[in-house]
């Protein structure tokens, strides 16, 4: 399921997480070529390779190869894909040629890199007619700067130096600075790189000052990323390592706030990573993101982040460990989705409950739907209009070794909705209680992993199966009465999931009927759990808990 539409390297290309395609050891022909810190490292994407660029074919963000032709069309957008345009204009693919030159000593690579870049500079003057507007947006400018600085280590022509100065002036403009965001970090890294390259201490000092403020806004004191998509924590961590290395190379002191928060990010990345080694696909996060960061093993199995995340697991370093996430906190921003009070659940070595995931950054109806509450496992208040960007609170938590419970609330529907979540480990199960204030009824939906298909639906008991594996979902209303009438969509309006970039798979979504309260119990691994609910007590296969959960 995890590799249906795009390779991991191609997806990481979108956010700069892929490693260089070149080895650290130069070939014999490269002995006369100086290998530079500005060119060597992990800043290059894995695709395309230098030889592919030399052949005039580039494959970006996992889309089919595009033929550059002898005369490059810098306004090209063959797939009408914003991410493709961004990577194309970043010129990092050109940078692969300079690294290949340093590693091989073959001047054909450098000659072609110079030819491509000189043509780009002549064809894309800032503000000129015919220059694609996106070419000079903040992020392409930031990432292109590193490719240009790398080229400048071997090409001393005035046109290149002048272009880098133009880039620096734009990067230094406070009106265009993306403070508190990974784009701002990239702007600072780029500005410092150009400042250090040409001895402009004013540019380098500005970059250092701004970066400290941006890091303190984007990474809180617990190490949580504030951009509301955990996979971006990997990108930010990697970029902070680049920033720290650049400061040291430039002879500058690394601010303590940057070092501390970069270290704290590692714990956040670890807690955000499921037992299967992939990051929880929350917000704009793909289910195939492998962090590949040496985080160590955190001391806690359960972690509550004030930024709006609860993560819990049975144990570390066990692929069959149970794992869950719960969302709350500040209203939607940056890479977040309207997923507050939403849960995901992983048990028996597999996904059970999932979000709809991240499809792309294209301005499509489906993209905007993936941001909506209907794309997540959340409660809604019947008859009330949803209020976007509403904050939510975690009001109570009880954390034990084998069982945890939490209560969350907000007014995203104008009146208070409250969700309590209980997770039991060992005998794995998740129980969720949803209510609304003022006598309003609630409804909820549950998006199961695509491999799980409904095999029975009767009397408030829904059973899903994948081969011999079974999951049972039960729902109860007030006074422990079973609630029947669940509807199932696979496809249609609600039944979709996008586990990887540009993928869209049908999946089973169970929609509850309206009720004054809804107690939902998810039991993985069985199609016939022994369940009783009476006198305010619930018993599932010998596991007992209060019908109020807390």
From TrEMBL:
Major location (coarse): periplasm
Gene3D superfamilies, per the entry: 2.70.98.70, Chondroitin AC/alginate lyase
Organism expressing this protein natively: Nonomuraea roseoviolacea subsp. carminata
Residue intervals of the Heparinase II/III-like C-terminal domain: 331-468
Pfam families: Hepar_II_III_C, Hepar_II_III_N
Domain Heparin-sulfate lyase N-terminal per the UniProt entry, residue ranges: 62-294
Protein name: Heparin-sulfate lyase N-terminal domain-containing protein
Lipid metabolism keyword on record: no
Signal peptide interval: 1-23
InterPro entries linked to this entry: Chondroitin_lyas (IPR008929), Hepar_II_III_C (IPR012480), Hepar_II_III_N (IPR031680)
Alphabetized UniProt keyword annotations: Lyase, Periplasm, Signal
């Amino acid at each position: 399921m995890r590799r249906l539409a795009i390779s991991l390297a191609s997806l990481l290309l979108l956010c700069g997480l892929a490693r260089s395609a070149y080895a650290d050891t130069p070939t014999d022909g490269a002995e006369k070529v100086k290998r530079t810190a500005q060119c060597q490292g992990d800043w290059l994407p894995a695709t395309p390779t230098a030889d592919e660029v030399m052949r005039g074919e580039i494959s970006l963000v996992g889309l089919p190869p595009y033929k550059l032709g002898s005369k490059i069309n810098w306004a090209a957008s063959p797939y009408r894909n914003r991410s493709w345009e961004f990577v194309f204009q970043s010129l990092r693919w050109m940078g692969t040629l300079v690294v290949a030159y340093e590693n091989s000593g073959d001047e054909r690579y450098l000659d072609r890199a110079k030819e491509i870049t000189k043509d780009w500079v002549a064809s894309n003057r800032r503000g000129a007619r015919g220059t694609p507007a996106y070419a000079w947006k903040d992020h392409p400018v930031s990432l292109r700067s590193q490719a240009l600085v790398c080229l400048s280590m071997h090409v001393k022509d005035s046109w290149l130096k002048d272009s880098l100065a133009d880039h620096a002036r734009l990067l230094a403009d406070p009106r265009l600075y993306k403070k508190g965001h990974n784009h701002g970090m990239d702007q600072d890294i780029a500005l410092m790189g150009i400042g250090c390259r040409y001895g402009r201490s004013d540019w380098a000092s500005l970059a250092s000052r701004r970066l400290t403020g941006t890091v303190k806004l984007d990474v809180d004191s617990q190490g949580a990323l504030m951009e509301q998509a955990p996979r971006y924590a990997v990108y930010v961590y990697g970029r902070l390592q680049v920033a720290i290395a650049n400061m040291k190379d430039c002879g500058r002191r690394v601010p303590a706030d940057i070092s501390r928060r970069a270290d704290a990010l590692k714990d956040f990345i670890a807690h955000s990573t499921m037992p299967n080694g992939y990051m929880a696909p929350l917000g704009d996060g793909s289910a195939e993101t492998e962090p590949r960061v040496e985080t160590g093993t955190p001391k806690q199995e359960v972690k509550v982040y004030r930024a709006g995340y609860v993560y819990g697991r049975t144990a570390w370093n066990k692929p069959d460990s149970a794992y869950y996430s719960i969302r709350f906190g500040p209203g939607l921003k940056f890479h977040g989705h309207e997923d507050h009070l939403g849960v995901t659940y992983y048990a028996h070595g597999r996904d059970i409950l999932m979000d709809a995931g991240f499809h792309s950054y294209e301005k499509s109806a489906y993209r905007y739907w993936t941001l909506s509450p209907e794309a997540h496992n959340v409660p809604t208040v019947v008859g009330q209009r949803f209020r976007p960007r509403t904050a939510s609170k975690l009001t109570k938590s009880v954390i034990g070794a084998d069982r945890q419970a939490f209560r969350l609330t907000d007014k995203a529907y104008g009146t208070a909705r409250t969700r309590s979540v209980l997770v039991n480990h060992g005998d794995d199960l998740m129980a969720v209680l949803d209510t609304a204030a003022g006598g309003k009824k609630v409804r909820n939906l549950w998006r199961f992993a695509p491999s799980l298909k409904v095999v029975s639906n009767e009397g408030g008991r829904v059973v899903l199966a994948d081969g011999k594996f079974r999951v049972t979902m039960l729902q109860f209303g007030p006074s422990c009465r079973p609630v029947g009438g669940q509807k199932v969509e696979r496809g249609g309006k609600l039944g979709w999931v996008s586990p990887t970039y540009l993928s869209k798979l049908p999946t089973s979504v169970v929609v509850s009927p309206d009720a004054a309260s809804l107690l939902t119990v998810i039991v993985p691994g069985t199609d016939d759990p022994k369940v009783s609910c009476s006198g305010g007590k619930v018993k599932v296969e010998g596991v007992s808990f209060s019908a109020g959960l807390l």
